[in-house]
Structure formats: C-alpha cells, structure tokens
Please model this.
Amino acid sequence: MFRSLISGTGSYIPTHIQSNLDFLQQAFYANGQLLSSSPKEIIDKFRQITGIEERRYVSGGLTAADIGSIAARHALEDSGVDPEDIDQLIVGHNFGIVLPGTIQSIAVPSLASLIKHQLGIRNPACIAYDLVFGCPGWLQGIIQADAFFKAGIAQKALVIGTETLSRVVDPYDRDSMIFSDGAGAMLLEYRDASVNGRGILSASMQTHALEEVNYIGMEPSGHPNSDPQVRYMKMKGRKVYEFALSHVPAAMKECLDKSGVPVGELKKIFLHQANEKMDDAIVKRFYELYDLQAPENVMPMSIQWLGNSSVATIPTLFDLVRKNQLPPHNIQPGDVVMFASVGAGMNINAVCYRC
Ligand SMILES: CC(C)(COP(=O)(O)OP(=O)(O)OC[C@H]1O[C@@H](n2cnc3c(N)ncnc32)[C@H](O)[C@@H]1OP(=O)(O)O)[C@@H](O)C(=O)NCCC(=O)NCCS
Model:
C-alpha cells in the first residue's frame, strides 16, 4: 500500500517584528470615517478578540518568491531529496509578488517558476505551477499532490505556501493588524506505507461561492482621501467568523470520519492561524460534534507572535512542532494529526495524516 508521506518541512519566519504597540500612532478609519475609539483602545480590543500581540513583516526587498525559496531549501535539506527528482513544485499564494511600496500583484511568471529558478532546478519534468485557493491554498496543494501521486503522474512534490500580506493591507483598516508575512514548505513522497500505515489518510474540501464570494476581497481604503482606484485586501470579519463556525467543524469531522480513526486518537489539529478566538471556537465546535470537550493542548497556536500569514500559517506551524520548536507540543511516530483551513473563496479543506 502506497501513501503520501512527509519527508521534509521548512519555513521562513521574517525577522522584522511588528508589535501591536507599533500601531499606536495609526489613525483607523472605516467607510471614510475616523473611528471614535483611540488607537490604544482599538489595539487593546484587537488583542482581546484575536490573541495577536505581534506579527512578522518581510524586510527590505524580499519577495514572496524569495521567502518561498528559503522555506523550500529548508524542506529539501530536511528531506535529503535531490531537487532534480521533484515532479511537482506547487506554490499556494494569493497575491504573487508585491514589490515594496507598490500594491500591484505580479504573477507572471508564476511564483512556482520563480522559485524553481531560484532553487536552480534544471529538470524540465519538474512541473512548477501556482495554486490560488485563499488561505487554504497550501493545504490544497498537498491534496493535489496526493491526487497526482495516486494517478501515477508524480512521486515527489514540493508544496510551498508564501505570502507578503503586509504589502496588500490598508493601514487605516484595524483588521489589517491580523495579517502578516511568511512562508512554509513540505516535501511529500509517494512511498510504501504497508508496515506502519503512515501517510495521508483522508481529505475533505468545499467551495462556497454564492454571497460568500464577497466575504474576503479587494476594496478601496477606508480613508476618505484615498485613491478609489487602489484596492486593498478587505474582509467582512463577522461574516467570515460565522461562515467558518458553520462549516469548518463539519468538514473536519467528514475528513476524520473518512480516515476511520476514532476522534480520541487524534493527537493534534494544525488549524489555519486565522485568529485565536475563531480557532478556539472551531475546535470547540468540532469536538462538540462528537459530544466531547476539546482536549488540552490539541491545537498548537502561533498566531500570538506570527499573526495570520495566510497560506504560510499551517506549514510554518507544523514545521515548528515537528522540529520541537513550540513546546510543549510535539509529534511522535504513529500520531494522527489533522490539518484544516478556511479562507477567501470561501474555501475550506482538511487532511488527516498518520506521522
Ligand atoms: C475580525 C474579528 C476578530 C472581529 O471580531 P467580532 O467579534 O466579529 O467583532 P464585532 O464586529 O462583533 O465587534 C466586537 C468588538 O470588537 C471591535 N472590533 C472588531 N474588529 C476589530 C479589530 N480588527 N480591531 C479592534 N477592534 C475590533 C468592535 O468595534 C466591537 O467593539 P465593541 O464591543 O466595543 O463595540 C472577527 O470577526 C473574526 O474573527 N473574523 C474572522 C476573520 C479572519 O480571521 N479572517 C482571516 C481569513 S480566514
């Protein structure tokens, strides 16, 4: 029995720390009106509802391709796989390259091609392409690699999630403080798993694109004097929250039930780091579907110090735990873990994996 196995992980955590206090001089607007609360009051409330104390922004001229390449190199070193042997190089992102001081997405050539170039991979049979699927884009790349393996098209895939959201947010929007930059990568290989039953066990995914399509998108700044032609990433936070609570726990349950693993055996949930309040509520509701309470320490979190770096949150979080850099969390051979994500589209996905 062959399964998709994780043979390496890597991440890039930007060095610039942007703390909540760095927003103390920021004026916050909504719909052209200055918010009546002071920046301090807004920041305090923000921390209370999101759990975020600080976040990371890329420095200098680093781009999403640059940081994706760094994460990829770490994953390759970790796996010992020769980069020339990779069949699929898949990059989940939403905005391509956004150069400092601009708010223009550059997606031609694809980030995957640029990263393949930076890694110096010569093999033309290493197919490099991007995947735009909102925050769940990286996990969708994993699901896609698994499907390519099962179809006999590929045997080794490098799946990267990379984003520089600090360059697409509206500084006058208080929700912008949620978002951050980062990159994570994973090397997957299709290998014989008959002895220990390791590998990807199951997956589930959904797209809701009726009125939900407007929950996260691009809109002009809330500042009254801003150029209406320039658009920034905006979300209807309450709508996103309610959507996630209504659909993500059920999608996670569908994935776990498909795997055949009893819920009591699930060791860790690597959930998209959206915000603390939303993630806590999703996991609580997931266990309620089994008439259980969420076990302590089931969900590692990095949101407090890394913010929400979209596609990069799960691979970065998993890399930290796998390398024992986020105590007390750790994973042992045989542990069953779940990855789950939600974001623009609106898209949802989940994957169960035996380590
Ligand atoms: C953004 C979010 C944290 C706001 O929380 P919320 O409870 O829905 O916020 P509400 O609109 O009900 O407002 C609750 C309070 O928080 C304040 N508030 C809302 N967003 C805020 C923000 N970003 N910063 C500071 N305060 C905020 C409101 O003014 C209100 O204050 P009040 O009680 O003094 O009147 C929440 O909607 C959410 O988690 N959304 C999901 C967003 C997300 O993670 N997206 C990532 C893509 S997956």
